[in-house]
Amino acid sequence: MPADFDFEFRSLFSQPKERPEEAGGGAPSTLKARLYSALVRSQQESGPLASLDATVASGHEICVFEKLVQIAPVAERLKSPFFCGVCHARVLAEKLDNPPIFWPHCPYVEFKKS
Ligand SMILES: [Zn+2]
Q: pLDDT per residue over 64-94, tens digit each?
């Protein structure tokens, strides 16, 4: 994943810190979840996502379910799909503003905190 994609993604989903009173609370977490899903699908159209090993090696945290796949003895190419996209966290986060999901490092869990 190119570094500028990381910057653009963080800019889209971050809250302005200088004047939070003007931020108006930011976008609903359901919108962020749906946008994230759409962005990842769009990214996948240009090629496979970075593998989980590469993601961890570049210093990013991965979802606990992705961690299970990462440590599984399977080929590297099988570690590139968007696992959070098939997880029930995605479905809940796209439908509910405060979804009952709590596991660490899943982007869909992070959206409800923002
Ligand atoms: Zn996840």
A: 888 888 888 888 778 788 888 888 889 999 9
Distance 69 CA to ligand 1 centre (A): 12
Assess if residue 19 is contained within a domain. Answer: no
Ligand 1 center to 83 CA (angstroms): 7
Q: How far is the CA of 101 from the centre of ligand 1 (A)?
A: 10
45, 31, 33: which is closest to 85 by C-alpha? Answer: 33
Q: For residue 47, how far is its CA from the centre of ligand 1 (angstroms)?
A: 20
Interval between CA 110 and ligand 1 midpoint (Å)? 10
Which pLDDT score is estimated for 21?
44
Q: Is residue 81 part of a domain?
A: yes
Q: Note down the domain range covering 77.
A: 28-113
- In angstroms and rounded to an integer, the radius of gyration of the C-alpha atoms of the chain is 15
